C-alpha cells in the first residue's frame, strides 16, 4: 500500500469558450512511505500543477488522489486545509517567506494553529532552526538572508507541525551549488527519519540523489526510474485531522506585525479617520457639557423647578381664592406636593434711606420696585437664601424676620440719583421708609411702611424683585388696608420629573395657566440635542468616507499580500483565520483613530473650557466627555473596523491558494 496514490489525474485550463489546454493527461503514480521522489521535466509539463493537486491546493481536476487510502475528493475546503496543516510541509522555489517578519516568526507562523503556548512553540521553532544551522539568525529579518538560508528557513517552517509528506517545488532552482547541496542533504535526512519527500525539478543533478525519478512531458508520465532499491515501509494509519486552534493572542501578533509593516500609511489613514470621530466627540462633549450645566443649575436651585399657577385672564375675571387652592391640591395629589405657596406683593413708588437720600419711582417701574413676599418654607431656593446670590447680609432663614431685601440694581440706581458711593455692606442696617401703591377699581390707593435694609442680592440681568418676609409684609398690607391679592400659586413637586405631566393636568382646565422654567429648560435641552444630532450627522459623513478609505486600504493590503495569503492557506490557515487577521488590522487602524480623536477632542475641549472660564468664571466647563459618549464612539469604531474589513474579507474568500502562490 502506498502513502500516496494518484489515479488517472486529468487537468485542463480553458483558453476561451471553445478551446482547452490539457496540462495533465491521465497521470497514475504511487508514492511510498519514506520515499525520496523527484518529478522531472521541462517547464510547462505539469509538474507544479500535479503538486498542487496532490497537496489539495487545486481541487478542479478529474481522477482521484488517495492519501493512505483516503480520497481527497470527499474533503471540503475546511477539511483540505486541516489535511495540509496536519500532513504536508511545503518548500517553495521562491521561499515564500513573509518579508517583514523575523526568521523565528516565519517558522512559528504554522505553529499558531496548534493551540500550544507561545513558549512551547518558540522552543520547538528554535530546535528546528538549529537542525538547519540557522538558530543564531532567529531574530534576523528574512530579507537579510542569502537564498540558501531562506530556503532552509522554509524547510524549518515546513517541519513545524511534523508532517509526513514534504512537497518541494524547485527547492534549489535559484541557489548556488553549495546551497543546493546543503538543501538536498537536509531533504535526504528527512527521508531517513521516515518522511516522504516529493521534489519538483528540471535539474538532472538532483535526480542522482533521489530514490525515484518520475519524468513528465506534455502532461504525461513518460518514464519512472527507480534509482534506489531501498525497501519502503507500509504507511502508518493517517493521522487524525486536528482542527485549527488559532488563538486570539496569536492572531493579534500577526495582525500587529502586518500593521507595523505599513505603519506610516496606517498612521496617516488613522489621522484622517480621526477627524470624523473628533467631530462626533466634540459634538457629544459640548452638548453634554451644556446640558450638565443646566441640570446642575436646576439641582442647585439656580433654575427653579417650581410650577407657577395663575388664572387664565381670557377664561376668568376673578381672583385666586381658597376654592382654587383646594382644586389644585386635589388635582395634583397632596402626596406629590413638596410645598404649595401663595406669594403676594406690593409696589414701592418712593423710597427714603435714613441719612442717605431718597428715590422716586412714580414715573418708572424697575423690577426692584416690586416687593414680593418670601416663602414660609425657607428651604425654597430664592436669591435671599442662596449663598452665591447674596452680596451683603445673612441668608433668609426665618419667615418672621423684619427687614427688606434689595438688589444690586437698586443700590446702583440709588447711588446715581443721590450722587453717593454706597457699598452693599455699608447700607445694611439702614432704616428705609417707603410709599406703596395699590391699583383698585376705584383708583390708586397709597400707603406707607417703615423697615430696615437687611440684605443686598445680585441681579445681573436687572430683573430681580425686592423681597420681604411674609409676616412683616402681611402686617404692612393690613395696616394700610390694602387687599391681599394673590396673583399666583407656587407649587413644587417631590419629583420634578413629573412637572410636565402635572402641568398638562392643570392646563386641561382652561381656567388656569401653569408654567415652569423647567419646561423652558426642557425645550432648550431638546434644541441643544437637535443641534448636537445635526453636528454628529455632519461628522458621520466624514466617518463614512473614512470607512470607505480604510476598506480601500485593506483591499490594497489583500492584493499586496496575495502570495502571502496563498502561503498561509497552503500551510493550514482557513479563510476565517485570515479574515480575523485582516479584521484585526482594520481594528488597529480604527482604534488608533479613536485614540487620536479622543486626544484631539480633549485638547480642543480643554481649550474651549479655558476660554469660557476666562469670560464667565461661574461656568466650570462647557465641554464634558462622559463614559456613554466615549463608549458609544468605541462601539462606532468597532462597527467601522468590521465594515472596513468586509470587502477585503470577501476578496480573501475568493482567493484560490494555488493561484495566489503564483501571484506576482
Automatic annotation (TrEMBL):
GO terms classed as biological process: amino acid transport
The name this protein goes by in its record: ABC transporter domain-containing protein
Membrane topology term: Multi-pass membrane protein
Record-annotated ABC transporter domain positions: 4-243
UniProt entry tagged with the keyword Membrane: yes
Transmembrane keyword on record: yes
Entry similarity comment: Belongs to the ABC transporter superfamily. Macrolide exporter (TC 3.A.1.122) family.
Coiled-coil ranges (or none): none
GO CC field: membrane protein complex; plasma membrane
Sorted UniProt keywords: Amino-acid transport, ATP-binding, Cell membrane, Membrane, Nucleotide-binding, Transmembrane, Transmembrane helix, Transport
